[in-house]
Amino acid sequence: MTTEIFDRLAEACDGRVTLGTSEDAVCGLVPSYVAAPGSEGDVAALLRVADECGLSVTPRGAGTKLHWGPTPRGCELILDMSRFDRVIDHADGDMVVEVEAGCRLDRLSETLAVAGQRLAVDVPRYDDDTHAVGTVGGLIATGHAGPLRLSYGAVRDLLLGVTMVRADGVVARAGGRVVKNVAGYDLGKLLTGSFGTLGVVTSAIFRLHPLPEATAWVAVTTADPAGAARHASALIDSQQVPTTVDMDRPGVTAPITVAASFEGTAEGVAARAVRAAAAVDGKVMVNPVNGHAEHVAAGADSEVVAEPDPGGAATEPLVWHGSWPDSPHGTLVAVTVPPAALPAAMEAVAQAARANDLDVPARGSAVGVIHTAIPPEAEPGTVASFVAALRDRVRGRDGSTVVVHAPDAVRQRVDMWGPVDDGALDLMRRVKNEFDPRHRLSPGRFVGRL
């Protein structure tokens, strides 16, 4: 680090720059500088300085997912986007919101809820409820979505427009605030899940959906993945239109719980849930936002297993819904397969675990995503062997296995993203070179160490 670079960075962002400390570290790398821009112009100026001085740059929102992905090849400058925290405009009549990248998702949800609306992306939390709240920028960078994806699509499907700053300091905009406007829409999709390697997002425009008046749940337990698949198919095909369908297996020999949620009016969701439960001999739990527990159908064959919490919070047996089976300190693995292969993938997790003398959970969604977790105290070589065995089993199902995050000792032994087709990797490399030819932005964080 040099005084000249520090002074140039300070000039670019009105003096809001500090030296990095261990608290700013990204996967163990301590940055030389931390700058807090307050405008697109600041971001552009900082990136120009970084480009000219050869600094690698990592954008940071709430910092909740900086431990995800591979260790970057460099991290000299952190762009702290916390000052980009405004909800720029909520056009509730059009069900569209424009929001800055540093806005925390809980604050955005509170703002939208006043108008009875939401951004229908339920980013999973950890089982121990830590590191739960990220920002809009982090949501786009990681592209992670939870069970609501079954009905509303992923982050990229709800993103109507985006403003970003390229590595050379050029501001680019794509899309717009009208739902039917598709101009430049591919740029938003390209940025989603890119881990900050293509540009620094400063604001985004999202399509919104109404908040449901009530939610009802159907839960059924079965002994094996094949039975879980039958129940999940029955729920999806029941004509009751479930909002989410998920599976949870706490351990390799444990039974599997299949749960479906139904959203809408209190009376409507209760009736739909009871009809769906009849198809799987399941149990019904009604969790309305505004009461109305009496709308559970009287005389139904299915059992009401829990009364709604007065505050509308989820209660047993669905405490696991919408969470990763892990804390942020262990190894979290995501398996993605075609939805029809979900039961086979869940069994693949169990087989790989047994082969390595592990007992791991598996939690999946009907969209074809399973998360499994290994505790931080597990021997790193055993974890690496488990990941390799799981990849071998899933690859034959047209699936992929990604290590979302892991302790440093595990990172050194596994390819976090896993193998990628040469043609696909070449395409990603060309895109990276087009957007960031000098590889300044989050170098090494993406597939193939891009």
TrEMBL record:
Q: Is Flavoprotein one of the keywords?
A: yes
**Domain FAD-binding PCMH-type, residue spans:** 26-211
The record's keywords, sorted A to Z, are: FAD, Flavoprotein
Which Gene3D superfamilies does this entry report, sorted A to Z?
Answer: 3.30.465.10
Extract the InterPro entries matched here: FAD-bd_PCMH, FAD-bd_PCMH-like_sf, FAD-bd_PCMH_sub2, FAD-linked_Oxase-like_C, Oxid_FAD_bind_N
Instruction: Give the superkingdom in one word.
Output: Bacteria
Which residues does UniProt call coiled coil? none
Single GO molecular function: FAD binding
Q: Which PANTHER family match?
A: D-LACTATE DEHYDROGENASE, GLYCOLATE OXIDASE SUBUNIT GLCE
Question: What is the protein named?
Answer: FAD linked oxidase domain protein
